């Protein structure tokens, strides 16, 4: 299997009240295509920071990150943005949707940025909404949806560009366990159907039952705990 | 592509509560400018209108920050982010500018300076929003 992500000697610091604190300490990780990685850790362990660095939304202080052959350190902000419209998709904990827009408009947004013609956008959005079972809700504003539905819309938006790497930040945090299970099963289905590599970070240990490789991120240190 | 983003930004900006305050302010400003004339009135209303644009943007800061964050998340380049922020904020200035525009007919020849100052304010606010320093 080919390698999708290589992280080597990654360090990230935050400055709080004048002193520098290491939030990620010498992280090393190699991820192969088609894997589902689960990273578990308490709040404040650095899970979100790690995902944001992989998505090019934050920069590391030292270390190297290579995603699909691109060294993220060498890319400027616009090139990283381009990466997010083609290779990497990030699903934030708060879903990252615009409440006043409809489901269709939210899912269409990445395709607008690519500059895809309208009919191609329409086809792509419709097929992904069909896949996610959201076709009947496409004209509904996101603010009227339940937490589980919002999560599915957020996943649909991330899938519409058919990324090779999907980053999910606490995808089950705002859901009851029944809905959480459905979302995690959906990630497995996406992994099978699209061969998408998925990284899920969560403070909930139950999430680890649904992944192929498990890690613990504690106090900035990442350790593999089994497959 | 940019045209679609601009149109959606305009629509989104119009739904935000700060826009309603701006429209109310513009109506008041219209009445005031047509009842009273003079440089002092112009200077005072200019200061108030700038405060109005800032207050209106502040009242919608969660919306604009969320909008810019979402665009950034899905791969919006810096030019797109700045344009979206500028359109979102300048729409508030636009209503005020229209009122000042009608006042030109009342022979206020300092109006172009007023409008220029508004453009500068919008640009500064947009830069603050895009750089994540809001507000």
TrEMBL record, chain A:
GO molecular-function terms, A-Z: ATP binding; ATP hydrolysis activity; transmembrane transporter activity
Signal peptide per UniProt: none
InterPro entries recorded: AAA+_ATPase, ABC_transporter-like_ATP-bd, ABC_transporter-like_CS, ABC_transpr_LolD-like, MacB-like_ATP-bd, P-loop_NTPase
Top-rank taxon: Archaea
Sorted UniProt keywords: ATP-binding, Nucleotide-binding, Transport
Annotated GO CC locations: plasma membrane
Ranges of residues in domain ABC transporter: 5-227
Listed name of the protein: ABC transporter ATP-binding protein
TrEMBL record, chain B:
Keywords: Membrane, Transmembrane, Transmembrane helix
Record field: transmembrane: 12-33, 39-59, 80-104, 110-130
Taxonomic superkingdom: Archaea
This protein's name: ABC transporter permease
Provenance organism: Ignisphaera aggregans
């Amino acid at each position: 299997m080919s390698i999708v992500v290589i992280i080597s000697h990654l360090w990230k610091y935050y400055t709080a009240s004048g002193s520098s604190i290491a939030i990620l300490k010498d992280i090393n990780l190699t991820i192969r295509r088609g894997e589902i990685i689960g990273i578990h850790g308490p709040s404040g362990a650095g899970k979100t920071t790690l995902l944001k660095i992989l998505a090019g939304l934050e920069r590391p202080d030292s270390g190297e990150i290579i995603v699909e052959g691109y060294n993220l350190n060498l890319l400027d902000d616009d090139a990283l943005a381009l990466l997010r419209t083609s290779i990497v998709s990030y699903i934030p904990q708060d879903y990252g949707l615009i409440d006043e827009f409809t489901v269709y408009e939210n899912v269409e947004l990445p395709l607008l940025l690519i500059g895809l013609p309208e009919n191609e956008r329409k086809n792509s959005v419709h097929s992904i909404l069909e896949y996610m079972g959201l076709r009947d809700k496409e004209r509904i504003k996101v603010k009227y949806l339940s937490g589980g539905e919002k999560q599915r819309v957020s996943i649909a938006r991330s899938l519409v560009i058919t990324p090779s790497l999907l980053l999910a930040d606490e995808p089950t945090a705002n859901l009851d366990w029944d809905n959480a299970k459905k979302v995690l099963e959906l990630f497995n289905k996406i992994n099978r159907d699209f061969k998408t590599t998925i990284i899920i970070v969560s403070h909930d240990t139950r999430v680890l039952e649904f992944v192929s490789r498990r890690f613990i991120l504690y106090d900035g240190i990442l350790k593999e705990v089994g497959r | 592509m940019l045209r679609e983003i601009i149109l959606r930004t305009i629509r989104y900006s119009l739904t935000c509560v700060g826009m309603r305050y701006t429209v109310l302010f513009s109506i008041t400003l219209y009445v005031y400018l047509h009842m009273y004339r003079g440089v002092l009135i112009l200077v005072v209303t200019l200061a108030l209108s700038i405060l109005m644009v800032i207050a209106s943007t502040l009242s919608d800061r969660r919306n604009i920050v969320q909008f810019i964050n979402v665009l950034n998340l899905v791969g919006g380049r810096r030019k797109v982010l700045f344009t979206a922020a500028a359109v979102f904020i300048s729409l508030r200035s636009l209503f005020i500018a229209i009122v000042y525009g009608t006042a030109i007919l009342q022979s206020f020849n300092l109006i172009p300076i007023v409008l220029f100052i508004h453009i500068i304010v919008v640009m500064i606010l947009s830069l603050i929003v895009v750089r994540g320093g809001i507000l």
